[in-house]
Amino acid sequence: MTTSVDAGLRERAARLTVSFDGEAWILGRPELGVFVAVPEPGAVFVTTLQETGSLAEATARAGEIAGEPVDGTDFVEGLTAAGLLDPPAETAQVRGHIRWIEGVSPKAAARLFGRVAWSFYAAAALFVLGVLVSQPGLRPSWEDAVFLPSPGLSAFTWLLLGVVFGAVHEAWHWLAGRAVGVPAIFRVSYRGVYVVFETDLTQIVTVPRNRRYGVYLAGMAVDTVVLAVTLALRLLAPPAGVDGFLAAVALFLIFGIVWQWAALPLRSDSYALLANALRCHNLYRTTWLTAKSRLFRLTEAESAELAEAGERDRQIARWFVVPYVAGIAVMAWMLVTVVLPLMISLGGWGVAQFAGGAIGSAGFWEALAVAVYIAAQLGLPPLLALRERRLRRAGALL
Amino acid sequence: MKIEIKRVENTRLTQLIHP
């Protein structure tokens, strides 16, 4: 047995983080956003390599844990193929970090996600359910969205509401990440035909699974508090103008929360929560491949990828397609009952403005602005898709 | 023995901004 020490290998192994998620060991390159799950011998192999730099020593110690000889060279090749031994990224990832949250100490952030805070969030959720069950008049409908004299003006306020509440929702995920010591990256992305704000908390896989739930639920928790306040204000019977605005806010928030539970196939917050509860590592991809293999044929590369997925992921993926389909049905129902009626009312109003208004009149400009707004909404997701495809090819996104 | 390596997906939490 050789005792050769490979300084280059030791240096490369030193960049890896090793953590235990409660079941598997997670090896990662946090700055690259690349993580893999390995059994205990794999973790011992890497920590030994970090200590000694000796491939032979690492292989021997991993073999002791495994109870049989392990193939160390194959393991190093596997780590290399996964991109874990790549050189450091040339440019530091500076985009997407937001100063003001990083100024919040983990201890201060933890106060928003302690036992008292979660009791408060739960109480808000119960209050919302109680009001919606007992007060049929306060249940949302698509007409609530048009609360200003014209659909065009209302449409701009929807965007404003979306940006404000979207930012609060994401900030709460971010703060929850801060509370468990996980940094985040913020970006604008898309899910299906929707433009979304996105907080990338990939490094959460370095904390034990049972400590991740607060991070996944944080966004919906703050949505629920805002919704509870909105409904409480409506119960006080405010003036009609104020009540109309509050009704639009309530519709918006309820739509967002229901969407989070329905959009499992689009990797919503609830998807992350369920994938964690089911102890999967790559459930989204495995479920799609499983569904595709049943409905169509897999390419050779896809078959190989599915075969390489974890045993548990493949087991869960067999039935996880059922909640996927249920979620798609709910999203279709939301499209038919809220989105399409609004689109039609907005479109009809725009056509009437163009037909009746002289070019250059206030109504004309308003209608033109709305047309541009709708075109931007429909055009942005494909543009973002192209951008993410580029990033993915560069290996920065999975 | 081969030490199995399983890919771990990214965690990207999102919110609609114009539902």
From TrEMBL, chain A:
The keyword Plastid does not apply. Keywords: Membrane, Transmembrane, Transmembrane helix. The keyword Transmembrane applies. The chain crosses the membrane at residues 116-134, 146-168, 213-233, 245-264, 321-344, 364-386. It comes from the Bacteria. This is PqqD family protein. It comes from Nonomuraea deserti.
